[in-house]
Amino acid sequence: MNLRLRDDQQEALKLRAEEEGRSMHAIVLQAIDRYLEQEVDREAVRKLGAKYALRHAELLKRLGE
């Protein structure tokens, strides 16, 4: 896999890596891990929301009236 960044992204990432004393690679991997974790959490919330919306459909309908 190749990651192509815009020039401004490349420069900002380089500066951030220098400030943190880390590699650009390490920062990108951390960002990917955070994104994937957040997406798993979002999917879990969507599934639970759908489950409880079905279970409590009548109550939600009455609350909306």
Give the overall average pLDDT: 90
Can you summarize the main beta sheet? Answer: none
What is the rounded Rg? Answer: 21 Å
Helix content: over 70%
Q: Given the C-alpha coordinates, what overall shape results? A: rod-shaped
Proportion of beta-strand residues: under 5%
Identify the quaternary structure here. single chain
Termini gap:
52 Å
Structural class, from helix and strand content?
mainly alpha
- How many extended strands? 0
Low-pLDDT stretches = none
Question: What string, H for helix and E for strand, traces the elements in order?
Answer: HHH
- Tally of alpha and pi helices: 3
In short:
Pfam families: Arc (PF03869). It is built from 3 helices and no strands.
Features:
single chain, 65 residues, mainly alpha, 3 helices, 83% helix
How would you characterize the overall build of this protein?
- With 65 residues, the protein is an all-alpha fold.
- The protein is 83% helix and 0% strand.
- It has helices at 7-20, 24-55, 57-64.
- The protein is rod-shaped.
- The mean pLDDT is 90.
Helices and strands in order, then pairings?
Elements: H1 7-20, H2 24-55, H3 57-64
